[in-house]
Design brief:
The protein is of the alpha/beta class and about 280 residues long. Helix content is about 45%, strand content about 15%. The protein has 10 helices and 8 strands. The radius of gyration is 18 Å and the shape is globular.
């Protein structure tokens, strides 16, 4: 290990690609740096399998690959890993380009989320993933994307699980949190992936740049830390490398941010996902 870190160290959003990327080797690098727990999010099908889904069943292969990768990752960790499964919001653009209308793409993406919820119901996955495009789209695509995301909230509420969101940037997502609450999902169980240190509405999963983490510490609110490591051989280290979260925890400890470390790696994961990162640490 690069240095001992007392207690759990969780990366809230990492991709592992055993088909095209490093897979468990990336998890082992995280562990060697002091990381203990991972939430592993499935990659979109066009990246993982070089294909687009045409029906609900087509989503299962990518989900199953991710679940298997999580099993291997857990063997490499002193703690464990959990799968987060769902549909990347950029799929709607891929489908529209392939000839779907926005409504047809919406329905297929909702069916994909239904499949992901089945994995949660079976105990094979911890949480769901949805969202909306982080880039400019026309009104029809935007409306369809919001409908997919709201369906994700309904499924998460029914499944009693959290949901991670991939969305546009910004700090005010109170409307999105209200949509979740209206469907029976507590706002705290909506996690904005790739968040900055300041956020209104959902729980923030802060991209682990020092300046954003400093803001999150100062805000004093629940938060988690992530790399959004994408495990793409053409983009090694993107977005942030597997060692980043352990490295940032070490830096936070040096800065005296012990309370924030516990908040990010023990208290918030317990509140949001219902996981115990201390009890699952060997």
């Amino acid at each position: 290990m690069d240095g001992t870190l007392d207690g759990p160290v969780l990366d809230d959003h990492m991709h592992l690609d055993p088909v095209n990327g490093r897979g468990v080797e990336a998890a082992a690098e995280f562990a060697d740096a002091g990381g203990t727990h991972l939430l592993v999010v499935n990659k979109p099908s066009w990246s993982l399998l070089d294909s687009l889904p045409s029906d609900a069943a087509d989503f299962r292969e990518g989900f199953a690959i991710t679940v298997d990768a999580v099993t291997e990752a857990t063997d490499a960790l002193d703690g464990r890993a959990w799968p987060v499964l769902g549909v990347h919001p950029a799929l709607i653009s891929q489908l529209v380009e392939a000839g779907y209308d926005p409504e047809g793409a919406r329905d297929l993406m909702r069916a994909g989320l239904d499949e992901a919820a089945g994995f949660v119901a079976d105990g094979a996955a911890l949480a769901l993933k949805s969202g909306r495009p982080h880039y400019e789209v026309d009104d029809a695509v935007w409306d369809a994307s919001n409908a997919v995301m709201r369906h994700g909230f309904e499924l998460a509420a029914d499944s009693d699980c959290a949901i991670q969101l991939h969305t546009e940037g910004g700090e005010d997502f109170t409307e999105v949190a209200e949509w979740a609450e209206e469907r029976g999902l507590p706002a705290k169980r909506v996690v904005k992936h790739y968040s900055g240190g300041r956020l209104q509405g959902p729980t923030k999963s802060v991209i682990s740049h020092k300046e954003e983490l400093e803001v999150a510490v100062e805000e004093g609110e629940p938060f988690m830390m992530e790399t959004d490591f994408i495990d793409d051989p053409d983009r090694p280290g993107a977005v942030l490398g597997p060692k980043t979260v352990p490295s940032r925890v070490r830096w936070m400890r040096e800065e005296g941010y012990d309370d924030a470390i516990r908040r990010a790696h023990v208290e918030t994961p317990a509140s949001v996902y219902g996981i115990d990162t201390e009890a699952t640490l060997e």
